[in-house]
Every structure is written in C-alpha cells, then in structure tokens.
Design brief:
disordered C terminus; 5 helices; globular; Arc Repressor Mutant, subunit A; 107 residues; single chain; 8% strand; three-stranded antiparallel sheet; mainly alpha
C-alpha cells in the first residue's frame, strides 16, 4: 500500500492579507481563522464554513464573521445555510482596507 499526503500550504497573498487585516483591524483569533479559510477557498457557503470550523449550525457562525461583514472584509450573497461568504478578490490582490482608525482606537 502506498499513501501520499498532500500538504496544502497557504498562498503567500493569503498570509499577507491576513497579516495586513490584523494590523488594520482588532481581529479576534476566531475572525483570523474564518478570514483565512475564506481567503484560501475564495468563497464558501455558511454550511461549508461551519463544517470547516466544526460548528453545529449556521447561527453559531455569527460570532466568527459578524464584524468581518460589518467592516467589509467579507461579503455575502444569499440567505440561511445557502449564504455564500467571500473576500473580494480585488481587495486581496491590492491588500487595501477602508479607513479603520475609528474602529480600533486610532491605531
């Protein structure tokens, strides 16, 4: 028997995006994890994201992504478990963020 383990390293732009987002916004560890998953997968349904995070239901996802949606780092389309969450690819490529100084105490 032969087993091949494929290791998927995050793309460099994903790591840069999360690092810059962390500097611009007061992200929690949960938010960094959710953002990292969305950047790597480009888009995920609420059900898929919840499965990756090992959550029981779509409502449990709220604390993980609510502020990311409020800040415009993550966008959504659809409703309920079919809701698709995604990070704007242009935002990732440019690594640009809206002014966040009022959100994180002027950092």
């Amino acid at each position: 028997m032969k087993v091949t383990v494929v290791r998927a390293a995050p793309k460099p732009h994903s790591i840069d995006f999360i690092a810059k987002a962390s500097q611009a916004y007061p992200l929690t560890q949960r938010e960094r994890i959710a953002l990292g998953l969305l950047v790597q997968h480009e888009a995920m349904t609420a059900r898929e994201l919840g499965r990756h995070l090992e959550l029981d239901d779509a409502e449990s996802l709220r604390p993980w992504i609510a502020r990311l949606l409020d800040w415009g780092l993550v966008r959504q389309t659809g409703r309920t478990q079919a809701t698709r969450y995604f990070v704007d690819p242009g935002l990732v490529r440019r690594l640009e963020f809206p002014a966040a100084t009022s959100l994180n105490g002027g950092r």
